[in-house]
Amino acid sequence: MLTDTPTPQTPPPARSSPFVGIWLWSVLLLLTILAAWYGLVYWRRLSPLVLPLPTAVAFTLWQNGYDGFFWPHLWITMQEILLGFLGGSLLGVGLGSLMALAPRAQRVLHPYIIASQAMPKLALAPLFVLWCGFGILPKVLIAALIAFFPLFENTVAGLQAVDAEARDLFRMLGANRWQVFTTLLLPSAVPYVFAGLRVAMVLSVVGAVVGEYVGANKGLGALIMASQGMMDTTLMFAVFILLTLIGIMLYQLVIYAERAVLARRARIVPLQQLLRGLEKG
Amino acid sequence: MTEVLADQQRDVMAGEAIRCAIRVTRLGKRFRTSTTELWALRDVDFTVQTGEFIALVGESGCGKTTLLRLLAGLDTPTTGSVMLGQHTIQGPAPEVGLVFQRPVLLPWRTVLDNVVLPAELARQPRQEARQRALQWLTVLGLRDFAGYRPGQLSGGMQQRVALARTLLRDPAVLLMDEPFGALDAITRAQMHGELLRLAQHGGRTVVFITHDITEAVLLADRVLLLSPRPGTIAQTFAVPLPRPRSLEMRFEHRFIDLCRDIHQAMEHHKR
């Protein structure tokens, strides 16, 4: 930082061999676990009701995917997850911003926020079903409620983390409250908001599925309950794996969005492009 | 102290004839905690004339930054007042620009958009502001870096961006709080050169805070020595060096003599 030459923003040289090595180890670990699973079932002669063979689970997964049995359930659960995630996140960022903008309101509401966070939110699932019936609405509400808190908390933390000198700068420049919020506070909170989104995304999956446990006839959670009733443990495992894959995929989507936003913020705008913009006006 | 009084008397006698940019009268600032109270500043009196370059020196903890914050209107005085021209400072004024110790840039914005910020907040026409911003960046040798992000620049370059941002509003009064304190010696000398060049035309009034006596003497027309606890102006030194100043003047006898005088006064007023 002491030299006056610009540091070019090139990524570090790709260290391909150790990366491939680690990847290989991960795959080996997976294969070992699958083999141990298989061995356990095979040698201990476990009933498929207790623990099905991994091959049987894979077959069920493939077959039900192939003949389309999974898709309507998957579609319902995805809707619940995504609507809950979106609703909870928006509400979390919105209320978090409000808190940070009105410090007095924050002090008044603080004990209630702590209380509501301590409360096990999934325990409310039966109540939501009671209020909103058996459709997707109660599941969306549970997913939203559980996604709300990480965003709320991170938004408040992000908005409060802005340093005092930056606030002084905006005061010197005569910025009003709204300008401070949109130009300084909100952009500085973006990394915090993304950290919250990552957690909220995973929690939304939990919320939607638990909501379905309580009362639903469609959705992957409902399918797990149904497989329990039918004593089809293999199907249950297949749905677990499906839910895990959904979770991983959605989590990765948030990570990609975060990377795209952060990369955009670090991008060097070519001088020619800036000058062209100036000539147009 | 006598020099300060003489200074004031002259101003009073001349009345409005002398255009006074800043007039600080019996300024005091008290900080209170539940158990103690502390006068960070007490009975501070001085004036700065339009176009004058003033350096405030003192060891750390003598109230320099507190004083500058009062001048900037970021804090309210416990006693006394700060007059800017004909008006008492009650809050941040658009004709006052402040350069902080750290650059305080918005890391997600390009250098150009950081410099444009004051115009944007004042809702000035965008294109015209961007053109002016680019001009200031050109003056400060940063034109080629207009599209970079602050994190991609060196410390000295970041502080130059902060300076360009302050200059965009063309402030009549420039307040600087140890702006080069975090820079290495070579970059610092470079910045002194830039500042001398900028300050010497345009009739800008500058109040510059530093704990570096050499820097104060090199840049300023007058050096005010602040003594600690409570912070007050202990002594005023006129700098007899002609303008335009150059970095070579640091090696002249009268420069070194003055630095020694200020240093000895500083030791004397130490408690």
Written account of the structure:
The complex is a heterodimer of chains A (281) and B (271). Chain A has 281 residues and is an all-alpha fold. Chain A contains 11 helices and no strands. Chain A has a single domain, classed as MetI-like (MetI-like fold), CATH 1.10.3720. Helices cover 79% and strands 0% of the residues of chain A. The model of chain A is unreliable at 1-11 (pLDDT under 50). Chain B has 271 residues and is α/β, with parallel strands linked by helices. Chain B folds into 2 domains: 2-95 and 172-268, 3-Layer(aba) Sandwich (Rossmann fold), CATH 3.40.50; 104-170, no CATH class. Chain B has 8 helices and 10 strands. At the A-B interface, helix 7, helix 8 and helix 11 of A face strand 6, helix 3, helix 4 and helix 5 of B. Chain A: One of its GO terms (cellular component) is plasma membrane. Chain A: It is a multi-pass membrane protein. Chain A: Residues 74-254 form the ABC transmembrane type-1 domain. Chain A: This is ABC transporter permease.
